[in-house]
Amino acid sequence: MPVTDVQHDLDALTLTITADFAAPVERVWEVYADPRQLERVWGPPGYPATFVDHDLVPGGRMNYFMTSPDGDKFYAYWDVATVDQPKSFTFKDGFAVDESFAANPEMPESTQVYEFAEVDGATRATFVATYADAASLQKVLDMGAVEGSTLAINQIDDLLAA
Amino acid sequence: MNEKDEDRADAWFHALSDRTRRDILRRVLAGEHSVSALARSYDMSFAAVQKHVAVLERAGLLTKRRQGREALASGDVEAVRAVGVMLTDLEALWRGRISRMDELFASDPQHDTTDNPTHLT
Predict the structure, then answer these.
(1) Are A147 and B94 in contact (CB under 8 A)?
(2) Up-side HSE of residue A155: CA atoms within 13 Å toward CB?
(3) What DSSP line would sit under chain B, residue for residue?
(4) How many CB atoms lie within 10 A of CB A70?
(5) Exposed/middle/buried for A31, CB within 10 Å: 0-12, 13-18, 19+?
(6) How far apart are CA A9 and CA B75, in angstroms?
(7) How far apart are the C-alpha atoms of B86 and B26, rounded to whole Å?
């Protein structure tokens, strides 16, 4: 498994995943720069993602939907904030009302920070997802089809150990 | 998850989003406490502590029983464990995404992996 570290911060509502990939930084960046590759990794099993619009530049917009096993479509978007190719990019990940990809005001946005650094010819990737509050996180978790795993087992372990 | 599980998850996360309630839960998981004893541990009114205990009880994280004039509260470890299981499932989504990236790199025809260790872990 390339995941080397998982940090859950209950108070900050942040999930930080660290992973090491046996590929150069430029190769890892290509996954996000190429919508066809991104589709292969973004949706969870059973919920394949389709990127309709893809513009990985500051202020750029990514529109995508995930299709459930029952054929239901979940529309979502990325609002790209900063891009420092191939080292990092940041974006807001939110849900859309329908195929117009207008933001759904009922659903929370999360803040995502992805960083890629070279370590001995390979890539150390750090993915940080932050939610505004517990209610936002809960809504994302309720979707079931998305990655909002900010809360996780370590927090419960900490809770019981404290 | 079905509707009933979703409702329980709502109640769990709501209950655990408050630090006083997390603290109460820690205490009652360690052993049975009377509500009045719990109330003495916090700089807030008895009624306020009672309300926190009620939220935890409704979420199924804590059970209460009466003994004489006292209400005794204990943590429901099974329920807490169930929260843990649910959260582990969610973390698995992230792990799945990263392992699919790993597969993508391993299948690159143009990327010669023989010079590199397959994984660095």
Answers:
(1) yes
(2) 27
(3) --HHHHHHHHHHHHHHTSHHHHHHHHHHHHS-EEHHHHHHTSSS-HHHHHHHHHHHHHTTSEEEEEETTEEEEEE-HHHHHHHHHHHHHHHHHHHHHHHHHHHHHHT-SSS--TTS-S---
(4) 6
(5) buried
(6) 23
(7) 20
Q: Which among B8, B55, B120, B121 is the top mutation candidate for probing chain A, defined by the most A β-carbons within 10 Å of its own β-carbon?
A: B120
Distance between CA B65 and CA B34 in Å, rounded?
A: 9
ipTM of the complex: 0.77
Which are the contacts of A130, defined by CB distance < 8 A and separation ≥ 6?
Answer: A12, A13, A14, A110, A111, A112, A113, A150
Token pair listed for B71: 């209400």
pLDDT digits (tens, 9 = 90+) for A104-127: 988 888 899 999 999 998 999 999
Q: Helix, strand or coil for residue A156?
A: helix
Contact flag A149-B13 (C-beta cutoff 8 Å):
no
Nearest Cα to A142, choosing from A99, A100, A92, A108? A108
Q: What does the pLDDT look like over A65-112, one tens digit per residue? A: 988 888 889 899 999 999 999 999 999 999 899 999 999 988 888 899
Adjacent-strand bridge partners of A127: A17, A114
CA dist A126 and A20 (Å) reads 9
Burial class (CB in 10 A: 0-12, 13-18, 19+), B37: middle
Residue positions counted in chain B: 121
Which residues in chain A have Cβ-Cβ distances shorter than 8 Å to B99? 1-3
CB B83 within 8 A of CB A154: no
User: SS3 for A42?
Assistant: helix
Q: How far is B42 from chain A (nearest CA, A)?
A: 17
* Alpha-carbon distance values, A156 to A19, A100, B79 (Å): 23, 39, 11
The predicted model scores a pTM of 0.61
Cβ–Cβ under 8 Å, residues B54 and B86? no
